[in-house]
């Protein structure tokens, strides 16, 4: 009987030991799964951050389509093929400096005609009165500068947009207007009063 009791006790001890080992194994597996899930979560977070960074870079490098750009209230969208501009036409006349400041107050600048295509766009807008253009040589005589980006209207530029014989600087004429009846530019006194067109930067 003692041998049987000893054998039963031994089997019970082994069963208890096996149960303890199984519990330890389960705990180790649970810890391993916890660590694994934490690493998966961290990896997912890193991937999401990388995706957001790539998306931000892509969005920042996308060139906006000016044809879809909205015009400010009061500005008219004028298009000629791929060329596009938002223009505001005054109903009153001012000096050149006054017109320039008025456009600035609207978040715009006096219309510039840096290309022949821009000149065509102006003609399409069909002004019926002479208007100020954002071009002057007030700082350096003979050096006509566009007021939107301070670029110089060189000889070829002047040949393209000015009327024949202009600019002639009679009695120190430093500002430029567009004459619709002649479809060209000429220099006049900055103190003259003219109508004007403001151009919204795009």
UniProtKB/TrEMBL annotation:
Transmembrane segments annotated in the record for this chain: none
Biased amino acid composition, Basic and acidic residues: 10-23
InterPro entries, sorted: C-type_lectin-like, C-type_lectin-like/link_sf, C-type_lectin_CS, Ca-Dep_Lectins_ImmuneDev, CTDL_fold
Family annotation (Pfam families): Lectin_C
Swiss-Prot/TrEMBL keywords: Disulfide bond
Domain C-type lectin: 86-199
Keyword NADP: no
Alphabetized Gene3D superfamilies for the sequence: Mannose-Binding Protein A, subunit A
UniProt KW Signal keyword: no
Region annotated Disordered, chain positions: 1-23
Domain of life from the UniProt record: Eukaryota
PANTHER family reported for this sequence: C-TYPE LECTIN DOMAIN-CONTAINING PROTEIN, LITHOSTATHINE
Protein name (database record): C-type lectin domain-containing protein
Gene designation per UniProt: 106075159
């Amino acid at each position: 009987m003692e041998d049987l009791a000893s054998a039963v006790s031994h089997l019970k001890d082994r069963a208890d030991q096996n149960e303890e080992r199984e519990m330890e194994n389960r705990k180790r597996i649970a810890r391993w799964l916890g660590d694994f899930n934490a690493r998966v979560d961290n990896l997912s977070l890193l991937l999401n951050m990388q995706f957001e960074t790539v998306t931000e870079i892509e969005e920042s490098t996308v060139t906006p389509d000016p044809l879809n750009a909205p015009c400010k209230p009061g500005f008219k969208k004028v298009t000629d093929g791929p060329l596009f501009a938002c223009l505001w036409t005054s109903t009153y006349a001012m000096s050149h400096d006054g017109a320039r400041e008025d456009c600035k107050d609207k978040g715009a600048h006096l219309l510039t005609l840096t290309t022949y295509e821009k000149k065509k766009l102006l003609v399409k807008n069909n002004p019926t009165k002479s208007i100020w253009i954002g071009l002057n040589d007030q700082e350096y005589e003979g050096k006509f500068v566009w007021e939107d980006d301070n670029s110089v209207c060189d000889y070829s530029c002047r040949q393209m947009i000015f009327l024949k014989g202009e600019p002639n600087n009679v009695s120190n004429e430093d500002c430029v207007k567009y004459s619709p009846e002649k479809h060209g530019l000429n220099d006049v006194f900055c103190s003259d009063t003219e109508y004007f067109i403001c151009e919204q930067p795009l």
